[in-house]
Amino acid sequence: MTRLKWLLPLLALFILACGTPKEEVCVLETSMGTMTFKFYNEDAPNTSTHFKQLVTEGYYNGLDFYRVVKGHVIQCGDSSVAVDAEFNHNPHIEGTVGLARGDDPNSGQAAFFICLAPRPHLDGRYTVFGQLIDGIDVLRAIGNTEVNEKYFGEAKIAFHEPKVPVIIVEARIEQRKLK
């Protein structure tokens, strides 16, 4: 009976560990360190699939975070095939990964941003398709890098550019067990 007392909890832990399914995550190895984010596949299925395809094709490798606005976002990517908006309930908080777009809600393509702080004014206006699960220190370091201030358009939208480029050395999709 004494053996069963320690064996049953151990067996339960083993079953739980084996039963946790692996999920796809995106690993962004940058010139300033590594960040990893999980996908919101159920809330933004088309955007998540589109982003994963671009990562698998090596699209982001060698690109830089061309926009760094302290207290707001870092942004990378350019144009590709447009994806329809998938606005959802996920808030724009520190580490949120969203699809950048133009004035048209369905103009999101390959450019994405990661929030440096809560940005509630973006909620329901941009597709949130992921959340940082590792590398928040790297995100903060990128957000604090020195920039050349640039503003575009009549609305004076900040597109501050890092003085020293922050490069995505490699973006890849991995399978991980998430909590």
Task: Describe the 3D structure.
By secondary structure, this protein is an alpha+beta fold. The chain has one domain: Cyclophilin-like (Cyclophilin), CATH 2.40.100. It is 21% helix and 33% strand. It has helices at 2-19, 45-56, 136-143, and strands spanning 22-30, 33-39, 65-69, 73-76, 96-99, 112-115, 127-134, 147-148, 151-152, 157-158, 161-162, 168-177. A hairpin with a 3-residue loop joins strand 3 and strand 4. The longest helix is centred in the N-terminal third of the chain and has 18 residues, at 2-19. It is globular and about 70 Å long. The model has no long low-confidence stretch (mean pLDDT 91).
Q: State the helix count.
A: 3
Strand order of the largest sheet: 3-4-6-5-7-2-1-12
* Poorly predicted ranges: none
CATH superfamily grouping:
Cyclophilin-like
User: Could you tell me the radius of gyration in angstroms?
Assistant: 19 Å
Write the layout of secondary structure elements.
Blueprint: H1 2-19, E1 22-30, E2 33-39, H2 45-56, E3 65-69, E4 73-76, E5 96-99, E6 112-115, E7 127-134, H3 136-143, E8 147-148, E9 151-152, E10 157-158, E11 161-162, E12 168-177
Antiparallel strand pairs: 1-2, 1-12, 2-7, 3-4, 4-6, 5-6, 5-7, 8-11, 9-10
